[in-house]
Amino acid sequence: MNNPLQQYIDLYTGNPDMVQGNHGGALNQARDKALERLLEARRLPDRSDEGYAKTSVAEMFAPDYGINLQRHPVTVDLASSFHCGVPNLSTLMAVVAVDRFAPTRTLQQNLPQGVVVCSLAEGVRRYPGIADRYYNSLASRRGNAATDLNTLFTQDGVMIYVPDGVRLEKAIQIVQLFQGDSPRLAFRRILLVAGKDSRVAVLKCDHSHPDSADFLSSEVIEVIASEGSEVQFYDLEESAAATRRMSQMFARQDAGSKLTVAAATLFNGTTRNEFRIDCTGDHTATRLSGMAIGSRSQHIDNSSEVVHRGQHGHSDQLFKYVLDDEARGAFEGSIEVAEGSRFVEAYQSNRNVLASTGARMHTKPQLLIYNDDVKCSHGATTGQLDDRALFYMQTRGIPLDEARRMLMQAFMVDVVDTIALEPLRDRLRHMVERRFASADHLCDASCRQAE
Amino acid sequence: MNSDKNTNAGDIIQDVTSGDYKYGFVSDIDTEIIPVGLSEDVVRLISAKKHEPQWLLEFRLKAYRHWLTLTPPTWGHLKMPAIDFQAISYYAAPVKKEGPKSLDEVDPDILHTFDRLGIPLEEQKQLSGMAVDAVMDSVSVKTTHKEALAEKGIIFCSISEAVRDYPDLVKKYLGSVVSYKDNFYAALNSAVFSDGSFVYIPKGVRCPMELSTYFRINASGTGQFERTLIVADDDSYVSYLEGCTAPMRDENQLHAAIVEIVVEDRAEVKYSTVQNWYAGDREGRGGVYNLVTKRGLCRGDYSKLSWTQVETGSAITWKYPSCVLAGRGSTGEFYSVAVTRNYQQADTGTKMIHLAPDTRSTIVSKGISAGRSENSYRGLVKVTPAADRARNYTQCDSLLLGSHCGAHTFPYVDVMNPTATVEHEATTSKISEDQMFYCAQRGIPAEEAVGLIVNGYAKEVMNKLPMEFAVEAQRLLSLTLEGSIG
Fold first, then answer.
1. Which of A133, B112, B279, B320 lies deepest, with the highest CB count within 10 Å?
2. Which residues in B197-233 are b (16+ Cβ under 10 Å) and which e?
3. What is the DSSP letter of B282?
4. Which residue range forms the structural domain that includes residue A143?
5. What is the pTM of this model?
6. Which residues numbered 70-99 in B keep a CB inside 8 Å of some CB on A?
């Protein structure tokens, strides 16, 4: 198969005005460099590349998708038709329809003074100070060809800025939607900047309608956690079997910052999530977790990289998978402790359950340690549910199916528990329960009540 | 009492500091070296010098032609300068006046070399109970204990002899576990291997003594490409030891060996290595590039293969002794201690390929890095769909001595069977301050305490070594680490 990168480069070089269209500033400035690097790379990563053993980015981008280069308005009644069912969690919600930002009224009315949650295209114009300084600052350094491709085409997205010392009470919720009956590719982008000693929690939900056309979401998320800030980022995916997702998160943690990232993949087609977290300051705390529940032919690939460059850093990674039917799971994670970065404690754990003969799991936890004064460990297991526990439950009159469900739920509890927002935690626990109860698409029940 | 002990320890340390690498001497032995470079003619020349049959020459040529299509692997966590494969002589053999008929006829210089290495080559050392095949600059010099082994029907000889005397066996098994297509260095070895050991243990025979090979690179500007082939037939047992040393030289020498092991029904093979090739000097000049392919095929049901390695030498180590568990209920084991210091780099580990039901594997890897060295564990555990109830346990620990060294872990785990249980654990830390403090309290100097703690840390692996090696390996470990703390 030919590497599909060239067709995208041709598309861009053929229509630069259209892509650059209405967007000035940082978005366009980053494109030249990205193009330069793409011309050099000449290809998107595929399975022959180290780190992409199970998921080929090239293959994801190969089909012919429609890209909304001309910024045609997306005709869906979003704010009214969509309702994410996390009870007791009143959020500041915004919607990204395919790749277009649409705020809700509550968001506009309730945003505290100085806090920015807006369309990226608009943000780049209105807040050039923030955009110039932070946009693409992490992605260009740590990214690869897939990142550069996103940078090349991104026209909109979400910009979140929390000024120094502001502690947001309400969580910001971003709902990313795919709708339509023709194949589409969306280049999505989130820039989250948390000022000194600020606090912010972001919940992102990806949805695509079941039985919908082929969609591909190319997503780059940049998170800057300034000194002493507290950032939570939750990423929930419930999309259809025909949806592909290539998501890359780049985070930078300054001294004393706390970052919690949790990703849950409940329904999906093919998903590749990358988390690259740089702990540049001293005394950082990082918690990264992931949960994947796969059945049918779901493909879930998480890749993490936590790099410690400061002293006294602490990081904890936990990834758990339950795979049934023909589901494919992959996890490649690494901890790197740079030379001179002392007193670091970094842990990583990956636990997987294979529930059927067709399911496959690939695991590659890695440690790269360049310093002696550290405590680091990783553990990985792949196995099945405990026969004795199942037997015990059956002797107590619990049917085998239910016993299996209960054990699988229990298995996921510690990932759910990493979520600091209590209503969300409760809700996710409930969603996990329902997810195991049926392999059917959940969205109808939990998120689209109003539809 | 205490001071006595200290003096003793002092002696040992003195012993080492005065001559960092005690095997670093060069023996002045007439050596026949063919001109540097590699071409089809060189392959033919090696084959001709060894009076090989046509099929073996063809095997070599096939491998050579395949090698030409390959490029050296770059995925290792290693900084390796490009090797000029045309600057190496691919054949260096001690000149023989005539084939030695008894020990008296073996070149006394060679015997002296082995004396200094402490190899029980001489008959008087038969009491030590080892059968030794010594390979010097790739040609097997002398195999001891042949008669005693022959009584049991065990074949233990150099691979050239085996080609001559047991062509059917060699033809059947050579390249059956490590194909010449396997990787760059395997292809190179298949094309130019000059000698090595061949072992065949017949059905139901328990080899009465440890079999041992000692490898030594002596001549400068040469590479060593030996090949070991071990076949354990049904219900047999053998324990095989391998040791390696090389002189100190400023240049880098290449060692690209292949070890193939075939284990039949209910047979057991234990393969132990103490690798102490010259590691280069304090500034990282010179040293051996140890790029080795080792693999065993547990072909028979309930067969067992156990690798034990103590890696202290080599400037660069790139080796992954592997087990292919193809027989039902077969077992693979890998125990490793790898020590790196100064500018040494090691990327080593294992592969456990579970192909059959009820197969089990255990991996215990202990890495110790000091100085500015880089020590990586890289391993694969693969459970294929047919391997029901397969079981793996992996434990990789790294110990760091000093803040400029690196310890890395790259385990790959692929599970395609839901009834399999695979566990992996890895930790990285420095020597516990509590333990050091305790030792200091008891009057044990820091240096000695490190040796003590490290030996304790590596005990789990050391225990798997045969007695003769365990003592040497333990001493080697302490000595290697001397001067590493600070």
1. B279
2. bbbbbeeebebebbbbbbbbbbbeebbbbbbbbbbbb
3. T
4. 5-382
5. 0.80
6. 75, 77
Position A67 in a domain: yes
Question: DSSP label at A111?
Answer: P
> What would the pLDDT profile of B16-38 be if each residue is shown by its tens digit?
333 456 566 666 666 667 777 88
For an interface test with A, the pick among B375, B384, B422 (most A C-beta atoms closer than 10 Å) comes out as B422
Q: Indicate whether A451 belongs to any domain.
A: no
Q: How far apart (Å, rounded) are the C-alpha atoms in residues A37 and A35?
A: 5
Residues ≥6 apart with Cβ < 8 Å to B435: B449, B453
Structural domains of chain A, count: 1
* A-chain residues near B402 (CB < 8 A): 372
Selecting from A367, A373, A380 the residue whose C-beta is nearest the C-beta of B408 gives A367
Reported ipTM = 0.74
Phi and psi, residue A352, nearest 5°: -135, 145
Summary mean pLDDT of chain A: 87
pLDDT per residue as tens digits for the range B96-148 = 444 444 455 555 665 665 565 555 544 434 434 445 566 655 555 555 567 77
Q: pLDDT digit string (tens) for B351-404?
A: 999 999 999 999 999 998 888 888 899 989 999 999 999 999 998 888 888 788
All structural domains of chain B with their residue ranges: 31-432
Listed in sequence order, the residues at least 6 apart from A94 whose beta carbon sits closer than 8 Å to its beta carbon are A101, A102, A103, A104, A107, A117, A158, A172, A173, A174, A175
Please check whether residue A322 lies inside any domain of the structure.
yes
Which residues, at least 6 apart from A231, have a Cβ–Cβ distance to it below 8 Å?
A: A192, A194, A199, A200, A201, A202, A223, A225, A257, A258, A259, A260
Q: Do the Cβ atoms of B424 and A375 come within 8 Å?
A: no
**Residue A398 domain-assigned (yes or no):** no
Burial B102-138, CB ≥16 within 10 A → b, else e: eeeebbeebbebbeebebbbeeeeeeeebbbbbbbbb
